Amino acid sequence: MKRAKQTRTLLWSGLFLLAGCGETVPASDVPLNAPQTALAQTNSSMDRSGNTHFVTKLGLIQGHLWVASQLVEADLFELGAKHAKHPAQEVYQELLPFFDAVSSPGFAEELEAMSGQFTSSSKTDFRQSYQQVMNAVDDIVARVELTDSDRLRVANSLIEQALIEYRAGVSDGEIADLQEYQDARGFIEIAARFISKIQNDPQRSALLANIQTAKKLWPDLDPKETISGEESALEAVLADLQAIEGAAP
Predict the structure, then answer these.
(1) Residues 188, 163 contacting (CB under 8 angstroms)
(2) Taking the chain, what is the end-to-end CA distance rounded to the nearest angstrom?
(3) Where are the alpha helices (DSSP H) in 170-231?
(4) Which domain holds residue 122?
(5) Is 126 within the bounds of a domain?
(6) Can you tell me the distance from the alpha carbon of 184 to that of 178, in angstroms, rounded to the nearest whole number?
(7) CA angle, residues 214, 216, 222, in degrees to nearest 5
(8) How many other C-beta atoms lie within 10 A of the C-beta of residue 62?
(9) Are 100 and 43 a contacting pair, CB within 8 Å?
(10) Using one digit for the tens of pLDDT, what is the confidence trace for 4-52?
């Protein structure tokens, strides 16, 4: 589990390295709407690799928020809050350079508003705030011109992270880390959304069918009994994605 935590930390911190920042500013010490000055130093145009890296980060945020929404629907507000506040506290600041690069105001206000809904425990209010955040992120992704290859690369990165989280969250069919287990399910959900937008019908259909099979690894987001813990279905999706990328011209 420690290795998985370190891997995720490296993944989250990658944006600062790309942006050329000398050190990471703790997100808890910086407001979400901090001025995009030295923190946001980057070129106005991003290369293809930078685009997919940026979109992957947004996909990871959406994965966390999707899990939060599902837990709220199950009346598990406390568990949901952990996933909703994680992006705000640890991830958002790392995205500021890229918001600047695509001329986006970001979604700090929407994220703050959604996080505040956990104190009122109102599903209706939460649903509205959640959708506003997800729509704001979708609008930012739409500013980045993604090819089918880009979408597949983003999906591959999300599923790779899901596998890391799943391995950290499940041990011999027992839940070793509930939050990691839940994170993995959210990342799979968002990966499927990127795959659903590719134009190649046979590839899209086959990949989505495999992801649907992989979703059976999560019989419940808060399981009370032993689960299978068989990760081969996730590995199969990754193998298919990588084979498609390898065959691309």
Answers:
(1) no
(2) 38
(3) 178-195, 201-214
(4) 2-10+47-247
(5) yes
(6) 10
(7) 120
(8) 22
(9) no
(10) 443 343 333 333 222 323 233 333 333 444 433 322 333 334 456 678 9
3-state DSSP call for residue 175? strand
How far is it, in rounded angstroms, from Cα 111 to Cα 92?
A: 9
Rounded to two decimals, the pTM is 0.80
Taking alpha carbons only, the member of 176, 192, 190, 185 closest to residue 216 is: 185
Instruction: Tell me the angle at which helices 201-214 and 232-247 cross, rounded to the nearest 10 degrees.
Output: 160
Model confidence over 63-111: pLDDT tens digits? 999 999 999 999 998 899 888 876 655 678 788 888 888 889 999 889 8
Is 19 a domain residue? no
Residue 228 corresponds to which tokens in the numbers above?
A: 């299978």
Residue 36 covered by a domain: no
Compute the distance between CA of residue 24 and CA of residue 11 in angstroms, rounded to an integer.
13
User: Which pair of structure tokens corresponds to residue 210?
Assistant: 């495999």
Q: How many domains does the chain have?
A: 1
Token couple for 129:
């705030």
On the 0-12 / 13-18 / 19+ scale of CB atoms within 10 A, 45 is exposed
Residue 21 lies in a domain: no
Q: Contact, 162 vs 234, CB < 8 A?
A: yes
Residues in the chain: 249
* Main-chain dihedrals φ then ψ at residue 174, nearest 5 degrees: -105, 145
Among 52, 234, 212, smallest CA distance to 148 is for 52
**Count H helices, E strands: the chain?**
10, 2
Residues ≥6 apart with Cβ < 8 Å to 164: 4, 7, 8, 184
